Amino acid sequence: MNQKILDRMRRLCSMREYCVSDIRTKVCNAIAGKDGSGKMSPDFDREVEEIMQSLVSDRYIDDLRYASAFARDKSSISGWGASKIRYALASRKIDADIINEALTEIDNVRASERLYKLLENKYRSLKDDPQCRMKLIRFALGRGYGYDEVNSAVRRLSDGLP
Which of 37, 126, 146, 149 would be a feasible disulfide site paired with 132, CB 3.0-4.6 Å? Predict the structure, then answer.
């Protein structure tokens, strides 16, 4: 096992959360480029697996921890809905069970409030548009919220307006 690459990955993982697939890519790139020739050594797969096993066993990388942090951040900071978060995590090759568990950690009340605020802000730019309702729904669906949730928020928004 290449100790230099392992130490570099440990340093990276100690600075922020990474998922297994992200680190695997970094390890593969580091091993493939270590001799400068771009050729893969015969022990390439074994070396990658040894480094990955070491990082996982030492808990430097954990997909559940990564997915939970990702879901919380994207929900509260970026205003993403569950569908968009699910898709983003799946694109990082995270298991569906882990994604479902991470999504349970999202505060649904705060997410609904966030959706309402997003729609309120968007409504200000669409006030005079005859297709305002449709555009609000499309906007919120693009953010990853479910149709029932979006429709309820748009209805609540339109009932509260003069």
Answer: 126
pLDDT in tens, the chain (162 residues): 689 999 999 999 999 999 999 999 999 998 887 655 555 667 888 999 999 999 999 999 999 999 999 999 999 899 999 999 999 999 999 999 999 999 999 988 999 999 999 999 999 998 888 999 999 999 999 999 999 999 999 999 888 764
pTM of the model: 0.84
Tokens for 56, please give them: 């996982």
Please report the DSSP string for 24-89 in residue order: HHHHHHHHHHSSSS-PPPTTHHHHHHHHHHHHHHTTS--HHHHHHHHHHHHHHTS---HHHHHHHH
